[in-house]
Amino acid sequence: MPGPVFLAIGVFDGVHLGHQAVIGTAATHAAEGGGTAVVVTFDPHPAKILRPNESPRLITATQHKIALIRNLGLSHLLVLKFDRAFANTPPDEFVRQLAAAAQPLREICVGEEWSFGKNRAGNLALLKQLGTKLGFDVVGVQAVRTDNNVVSSTAIRKAVEAGDFATATKMLGRDYTVLGTVEEGKHVGRSLGFPTANLSAHSEQFPPNGVYAAEGILQGEIVRGVVNLGVRPTVADSSPHRVLEFHLFDVDRDLYGEEVELKFLRYLRPEKKFENLAALRAQIGRDVAEAHRIFAANAKGVPA
């Protein structure tokens, strides 16, 4: 890597506007200083190890998070494995290890409230003390606000859970999306005449159950269709586990193993149990027609 190293460190779940401010500051300073910006993050989320029964649902798992960071123009990332041994590392030792590995280390950029090391004993003040001793600068980036509310992963989770995509999008600085891999399902949709791609999602925070008009990015192309999120109460193999199914329009090929980044465009209706499969089939037909109407209106710039 050319020049000195500028580190942006954080969990960065969601890669929201606050995270982007930290990462962007490191990238700007690296460009000005003729160095290289490196994003340092952790896998899994530290709370999964420290508070497994209270850990938050992820907005973006590591695979999705890395893709979003690369979309910001950063090509150098360090993903540190977070386990019990790592969690017990004293904060000063953690920083000394980073400084020794990133030669020469010019700067560490973090959010002002970031804490680190054993018992989360490290904070911005300690980081600055260590920077003075070890010869690197420290930048604490203030929290970002939208509509006078602090942007945070917690606030975004709450917005998504409530189906408030407008708030989530504003705080993320991008559309809320779910990244999933197509896996083989029970072929129920195909038997109803509406084949679906079953998505094994890499995140954990979902909006409310229901049917949505949706867009996806598949192999770099935009695809459209209808999404059902829920437990499929009408079918015989209904399950307490939520299933994410995407009926794609105008796509008829084997998608197993493909990744789809899914955007929920419009809530159409709640999930419900129908009297029989024929009634379910008729309702899906109406859902598909409504989604087509929405997409057509959007294409013309007319509110749907």
Write a short abstract of this structure.
The chain is of the alpha/beta class and 304 residues long. It has helices at residues 17-32, 46-50, 62-71, 84-87, 91-101, 124-134, 153-161, 165-172, 188-191, 277-299, and strands at residues 5-9, 36-43, 77-81, 105-111, 137-141, 145-146, 149-150, 177-183, 197-201, 210-218, 221-230, 243-248, 259-269.
Descriptive notes:
The chain is α/β, with parallel strands linked by helices. The protein has 2 domains: 5-153, HUPs (Rossmann fold); 176-299, Elongation Factor Tu (Ef-tu), domain 3, CATH 2.40.30.30. 33% of the residues lie in helices and 27% in strands. It contains 10 helices and 13 strands. It has a 6-stranded antiparallel beta barrel. A 5-stranded parallel sheet has the order 3-2-1-4-5, with helices on both faces. A two-stranded antiparallel ribbon has the order 6-7. Helix 5 packs across helix 6 and helix 7 packs antiparallel against helix 8 (165-172). The longest helix is centred in the last third of the chain and has 23 residues, at 277-299. It is elongated. The N and C termini lie far apart (50 Å). The model has no long low-confidence stretch (mean pLDDT 92).
What is the topological layout?
Layout: E1 5-9, H1 17-32, E2 36-43, H2 46-50, H3 62-71, E3 77-81, H4 84-87, H5 91-101, E4 105-111, H6 124-134, E5 137-141, E6 145-146, E7 149-150, H7 153-161, H8 165-172, E8 177-183, H9 188-191, E9 197-201, E10 210-218, E11 221-230, E12 243-248, E13 259-269, H10 277-299
Parallel strand pairs: 1-2, 1-4, 2-3, 4-5
Antiparallel strand pairs: 6-7, 8-9, 8-13, 9-12, 10-11, 10-13, 11-12
Helix pairs in contact: 5-6, 7-8
